[in-house]
C-alpha cells in the first residue's frame, strides 16, 4: 500500500472554447474496413471501363444502380452491362455540401437514365457549366484512369452541344 | 385496438444551439411543461416511454435514451429507442399510440430530442448524408439539399412548378412563425429575399432549406379511461399510417399512382409515378391514415396540416401526396393562397385560382421556420396540433393569431430521407 500514490501529470491540455458552460474540443476518427460485399463486381468493372447494372432473373427489371435482389419480385439479379450513353433525368449544382465535399463545390450531380434500364444512376457531371445543363441532355460515361474503387470512378460528360429529345423510361413493373 | 388520446405535450424553444443544456435537460424541460399543463398527471401514472433521436453521431453518446429515462425518474419502467431518420419523431408518436392501443400501457410518454449544434454545419450535413446509400450515393457528393434539388428540378420539368411558388412556401412558413415563440427563425420575407439568398443546390437557396437545431418535445398518450380521468380536454388520435420507399432515389419506380378515395386512375393516365418527383411513402401513409380515420376527401375534411417541410419544395410535393391537391398541382395550390392563414398579411399576391379547398398548411411555421431538431420534430408537430385542437394556442404561444377557429381535425406528417419512411397521423378534438 502507498498512501502517496499519484497519477502521472502530462503536458497535454484541452482545447477550451467556453467556460460557462464548459465546451471542449473532442476529436473522433475511425477507419472502417468497408466491404462492398455483393456490390463488389460493380467497382471492379469500373476499373475496366464498364458500367454494370443488374437484371432481375425473375421479372426482367433492369436496375441502373446494381442490387443483388430485385425490389419488385424479390428474385436474384444477374450482372448486366449498361450502355455508356444516357440522358440527364434530373440534375443540380451543389454550392455547399457535407464537410467531406465542401472543397469540391460547386459540383453538378445528375441522375442518368439509360435506354433499356428501368431505374437511374447517380453521378457527377463535368464539362458543362451549371446553366448549360438540361433535363434530357445526352451524356456519356468516362472513367478515371487511376481507380479509387469508389462510385466516382465513373462520371459523365456532355455528348454534344445539342440536347437530344427525352425518351420516357420503361414502366417500373418489369 | 382501443381508442388512444393525447392528453398533454411540451416543447423547448428550438434554437441553433443550446450549449447550456444537454439532451437530458432539454427533454426534462419539455416534460415539465407537459406535466405542469396537466396537474392531474403524475409521474406515477406514466407506464413507460418511447424515445426518439436520429443520430448517435450528433449526440456522441450511444444509449442516450436510457439516460433520458433515468433523468426523468422513470426507471425501472419500460422504454425503448425509436429511430427512423427525419421521421423519427412521427414514428415515436405512433409507437406510443401502439403501446396504448394494444393495452400494454395506459399512459405512454413519447419523448424526442436532437442536439445538432455539437458539430459544425458542414459536418452535420455530412452526418445527415450518411442516411443515404454509403456505397452509391454518399461518396458521389452526399448532400441532402442536393438530393431534394434534383427531385424538385424534375417536379418543375414534369409539372411547371416554379421557384416563385417554392419561395411563397418560405414566405408563408417564416411569417406564420412570427407568432410562434418556440420557432427558431421567424422572419418577414419576400419572394425576392428567398431567391436572392445564397444558392445551396440549384434551385434551392438557403431560405428554401430548414436549419439545424437543438431542441426537444414530448407528447403524452393515454387510453380512454386514463384520458377521461386525467384530462378535461383530450384529443383523440383517429388515424395512423406509414409508408416506405427505396433508399436510393435512383431506384424509384415509374409506375401507377396509389389512389386516394377522391381520385381516379383516369386523371393520372399520363403520370409515371412516383419517379423522383413524388413521395410514394407519403401517399401510402396518408391512404392508411385516412382509411382508419374515415376520411374521404382530405382537403375538405381536415382543418389544418402540419407537414415535414424540410425544403419548400418538399412542402409542395407533400401537399400532393396528402391529396390536398392533385399530383402536379402543388405549385399552383400554393400560389392560389389555399394553404395560407387568412388572418395573416403575407405581403403576397395570390393567383385567385379557386379549385382547391382552403386548408392551412404549417400554421406553426413548420420545419423551415421552427427548426428541425430531428428526433423532436415529429413530436413538436403533435404538440402544435394538440394545442390547435384544444383551442389553447393563445395560452401556449401567448398569441392567438395562429389559432384556427373551430379546428376539429388535423394531420401531422413526418418524413425521412428522400421519402424512405413517412408517417401520417390524424388527431381530432372530442
Ligand atoms: Zn424482379
Structure, explained:
The complex is a heterodimer of chains A (174) and B (430). With 174 residues, chain A is mainly β. Chain A has one domain (37-158). Chain A has 1 helix and 10 strands. Chain A has one helix at 40-47; strands at 16-19, 22-24, 52-56, 62-63, 77-81, 85-94, 107-113, 121-125, 138-143, 154-158. Chain B has 430 residues and is an alpha+beta fold. Chain B has a domain at 4-118: Thiolase/Chalcone synthase (Peroxisomal Thiolase, Chain A, domain 1). Helices cover 37% and strands 17% of the residues of chain B. Chain B is built from 17 helices and 13 strands. Chains A and B meet through strand 6, strand 7 and strand 8 of A and helix 5, helix 6, helix 7, strand 5 and strand 9 of B. Zinc ion is lined by residues 56, 58-59, 61, 70, 72-73, 75, 174 of chain A.
Topology, element by element:
The complex is a heterodimer of chains A (174) and B (430).
Chain A lengths: L15 E4 L2 E3 L15 H8 L4 E5 L5 E2 L13 E5 L3 E10 L12 E7 L7 E5 L12 E6 L10 E5 L16
Antiparallel strand pairs in A: 1-2, 3-4, 3-5, 6-7, 6-9, 7-8, 9-10
Chain B lengths: L3 E8 L11 H14 L11 E5 L3 H4 L4 H8 L7 E4 L5 H14 L5 E9 L5 H9 L8 H4 L2 H16 L3 H14 L14 H6 L2 E3 L2 E2 L8 E10 H7 L4 E10 L9 E2 L17 E2 L5 H14 L4 H4 L2 E3 L5 H10 L8 H6 L30 H5 L3 H17 L2 H5 L11 E7 L5 E9 L1
Parallel strand pairs in B: 2-3, 2-4, 11-12
Antiparallel strand pairs in B: 1-7, 1-8, 4-7, 5-6, 8-13, 9-10, 12-13
Helix pairs in contact in B: 1-3, 4-16, 8-13
Bound molecules: zinc ion.
Zinc ion binds next to loops of chain A.
Amino acid at each position: 500500500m502507498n498512501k502517496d500514490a499519484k497519477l502521472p501529470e502530462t503536458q497535454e491540455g484541452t482545447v477550451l472554447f467556453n467556460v460557462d458552460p464548459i465546451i471542449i474540443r473532442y476529436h473522433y476518427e475511425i477507419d472502417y474496413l468497408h466491404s462492398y460485399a455483393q456490390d463488389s463486381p460493380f467497382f471492379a468493372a469500373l476499373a475496366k471501363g464498364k458500367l454494370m447494372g443488374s437484371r432481375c432473373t425473375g421479372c426482367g427489371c433492369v436496375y441502373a444502380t446494381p442490387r443483388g435482389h430485385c425490389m419488385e419480385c424479390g428474385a436474384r439479379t444477374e450482372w448486366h452491362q449498361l450502355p455508356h450513353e444516357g440522358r440527364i433525368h434530373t440534375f443540380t449544382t451543389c454550392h455547399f455540401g457535407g464537410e467531406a465535399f465542401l472543397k469540391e463545390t460547386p459540383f453538378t450531380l445528375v441522375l442518368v437514365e439509360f435506354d433499356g434500364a428501368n431505374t437511374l444512376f447517380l453521378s457527377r457531371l463535368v464539362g458543362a457549366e451549371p446553366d448549360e445543363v438540361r433535363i434530357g441532355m445526352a451524356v456519356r460515361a468516362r472513367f478515371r484512369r487511376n481507380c479509387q474503387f469508389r462510385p466516382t470512378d465513373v462520371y459523365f460528360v456532355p455528348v454534344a452541344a445539342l440536347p437530344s429529345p427525352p425518351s420516357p423510361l420503361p414502366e417500373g413493373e418489369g | 385496438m382501443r381508442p388512444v388520446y393525447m392528453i398533454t405535450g411540451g416543447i423547448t424553444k428550438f434554437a441553433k444551439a443550446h450549449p447550456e443544456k444537454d439532451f437530458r435537460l432539454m427533454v426534462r424541460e419539455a416534460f415539465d411543461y407537459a406535466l405542469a399543463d396537466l396537474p392531474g398527471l403524475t409521474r406515477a401514472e406514466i407506464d413507460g416511454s418511447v424515445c426518439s433521436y436520429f443520430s448517435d453521431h450528433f449526440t456522441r453518446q450511444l444509449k442516450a435514451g436510457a439516460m433520458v429515462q433515468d433523468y426523468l425518474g422513470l426507471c425501472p419502467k419500460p422504454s425503448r429507442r425509436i429511430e427512423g431518420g427525419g421521421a423519427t419523431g412521427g414514428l415515436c408518436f405512433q409507437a406510443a399510440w401502439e403501446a396504448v392501443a394494444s393495452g400494454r400501457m395506459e399512459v405512454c410518454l413519447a419523448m424526442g430530442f436532437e442536439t445538432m449544434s455539437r458539430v459544425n454545419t458542414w459536418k452535420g450535413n455530412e452526418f445527415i448524408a450518411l442516411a443515404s446509400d454509403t456505397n452509391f450515393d454518399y461518396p458521389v457528393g452526399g448532400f441532402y439539399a442536393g438530393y431534394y434539388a434534383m427531385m424538385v428540378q424534375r417536379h418543375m420539368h414534369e409539372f411547371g412548378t416554379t421557384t416563385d411558388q417554392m419561395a411563397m412556401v418560405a414566405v408563408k412558413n417564416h411569417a406564420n412563425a412570427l407568432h410562434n415563440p418556440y420557432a427558431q427563425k421567424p422572419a418577414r420575407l419576400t419572394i425576392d429575399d428567398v431567391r436572392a439568398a445564397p444558392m445551396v443546390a440549384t434551385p434551392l437557396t438557403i431560405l428554401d432549406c430548414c436549419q439545424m437545431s437543438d431542441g426537444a418535445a414530448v407528447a403524452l398518450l393515454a387510453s380512454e379511461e386514463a384520458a377521461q380521468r386525467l384530462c378535461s380536454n383530450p384529443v383523440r388520435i383517429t388515424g395512423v399510417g406509414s409508408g416506405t420507399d427505396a433508399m436510393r432515389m435512383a431506384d424509384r419506380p415509374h409506375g401507377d399512382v396509389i389512389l386516394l378515395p377522391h381520385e381516379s386512375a383516369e386523371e393520372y393516365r399520363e403520370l409515371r409515378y412516383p419517379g423522383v418527383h413524388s413521395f410514394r411513402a407519403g401517399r401510402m401513409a396518408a391512404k392508411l391514415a385516412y382509411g382508419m380515420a374515415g376520411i374521404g376527401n382530405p382537403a375538405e375534411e381536415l382543418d389544418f396540416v402540419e407537414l415535414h417541410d424540410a425544403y419548400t419544395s418538399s412542402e409542395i410535393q407533400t401537399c400532393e401526396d396528402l391529396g390536398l391537391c392533385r399530383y402536379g398541382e402543388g405549385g399552383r395550390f400554393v400560389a392560389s393562397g389555399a394553404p395560407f392563414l387568412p388572418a395573416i398579411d403575407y405581403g403576397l399576391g395570390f393567383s385567385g385560382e379557386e379549385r382547391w379547398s382552403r386548408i392551412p398548411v404549417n400554421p406553426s411555421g413548420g420545419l423551415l421556420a421552427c427548426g428541425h431538431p430531428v428526433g423532436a420534430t415529429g413530436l413538436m408537430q403533435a404538440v402544435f396540433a394538440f394545442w390547435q385542437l384544444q383551442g389553447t394556442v393563445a395560452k401556449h404561444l401567448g398569441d392567438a393569431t395562429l389559432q384556427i377557429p373551430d379546428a376539429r381535425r388535423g394531420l401531422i406528417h413526418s418524413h425521412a430521407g428522400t421519402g424512405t419512411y413517412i408517417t401520417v397521423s390524424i388527431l381530432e378534438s372530442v
